[in-house]
Amino acid sequence: MNSQFNAIADGLAENGYAVIDNFLSPDEVTAIVTLDAFREGMAHFKKAGIGKDHGLQINEAIRGDYIQWLDKNTSPAPVLAYLDKLNQLVLFLNQSLFLSLKDYEVHLTVYPAGAYYKRHLDQFKKNDHRRLSVICYLNKDWTENEGGQLRMHLDKETLDTLPVAGRLVCFRSDQIEHEVLPATRERLSLTGWMLDQLADVRI
Ligand SMILES: O=C(O)CCC(=O)C(=O)O
Ligand SMILES: [Fe+2]
């Protein structure tokens, strides 16, 4: 694990982003995607439609994903294991890159087939405390012709990354514009941010 953390720190320092495979093992991914809470939650999101009360935010013109914020106290064990790993990564990055990250926040994300998220920067407001974006994908047997790439717009090129199970992408929220291309199948992920202040309480 330490070599993965090192690779993330190196990538962030040198390029502003890092892509790491097997951040979660196949078993860890299976444990998360087969959780009742996850499967039921997804059905619930779709039925509930737009509504803040259910932790769901949709703006179809820009993004077509469905989200559920994760609670660090009450999430099921496989999710807590992932959150704990992120917490360790926060501590590691603070030490190795001299950052002062204070907290992190994560939501489960579902992009139904055909959904996308147009080009954007995650830190778009002045008072935004998102410093690093960190996304882990949960899609087994994903192939290139299924689409769903994360497209990062770098200085001189664009970089497409497939959302394959266990892969982690981490990048500077204030610097790297990115978008999610539409896919031909449902696309699952854990989307999070490392913050320079404590996270709001979200339901
Ligand atoms: O799922 C991804 O690859 C990126 C998601 C994203 O850009 C976001 O939620 O801000
Ligand atoms: Fe984003």
Automatic annotation (TrEMBL):
Which keywords does this chain's UniProt record carry?
Dioxygenase, Iron, Metal-binding, Oxidoreductase, Vitamin C
Q: Which Pfam families does the annotation name? A: 2OG-FeII_Oxy_3
Using the record's annotation, list all stretches that form the Fe2OG dioxygenase domain.
97-196
Q: Which cofactor does it need?
A: L-ascorbate
Entries under SMART domains matching the protein: P4Hc (SM00702)
Q: Report the domain of life of the source organism.
A: Bacteria
Name of protein? 2OG-Fe(II) oxygenase
